[in-house]
Design a protein that fits this description.
two-stranded antiparallel ribbon, alpha+beta
């Protein structure tokens, strides 16, 4: 019995470490739900469920595309690198880690092919740009702090949309 307690304590300690992989941390949420019902609400202050439909952060509402398309369209800096150009994405999932950090699982818009001319490229101070309406299949993580703004989208054809940043800055 003591050996089982020690193994459980080691597992609990490992799940609380900041270098624990996110997938294992999510398994820890399930582990806590099954074996430690009293601690469940303290793990996620925002919601009992680590997966959320919508959140409010810095007075801005973000949601999954399946919940509200407009609130799911965001510009963000890849890997939090502010020296890169922000990319357009759609939020597929919103979740929080065991440490309470909010993350989005997003899909990027596919870049235009080299044959398509962006009519807005000659207007550097007008923040509209032509994009493909298709998305990459791969999901990537984006921290809420990496988000620049929402964007508005106007489909001009089956394969193209004009995207305009809604940045407050």
């Amino acid at each position: 019995m003591l050996l089982s307690y020690i193994k459980a304590a080691r597992l609990h300690h490992w799940l609380a470490r900041p270098d624990c992989p996110p997938a294992i941390q999510e398994c820890g949420v399930l582990f806590n739900r099954v074996f430690n019902k009293s601690a469940m609400s303290s793990i996620h202050e925002l919601a009992e469920d680590p997966m959320n439909d919508a959140i409010k952060f810095d007075s801005v509402i973000y949601s999954k595309a399946s919940t509200h398309l407009g609130n799911s369209q965001i510009f963000f800096y890849p890997c939090g690198d502010w020296s890169l150009t922000p990319v357009t994405t759609s939020i597929k999932y919103i979740y929080s880690t065991l440490t309470g950090e909010l993350l989005f699982a997003v899909q990027r818009h596919i870049l235009l092919d080299h044959h398509t001319i962006d009519p807005f490229s000659m207007y550097p101070y007008f923040l509209a740009k032509l994009y493909s309406t298709d998305f990459k299949t791969r999901l990537e993580n984006a921290k809420v702090s990496w988000v620049v703004s929402h964007f508005a989208q106007w489909r001009v054809s089956d394969h193209h949309a004009v995207i305009l940043s809604l940045s407050r800055n």
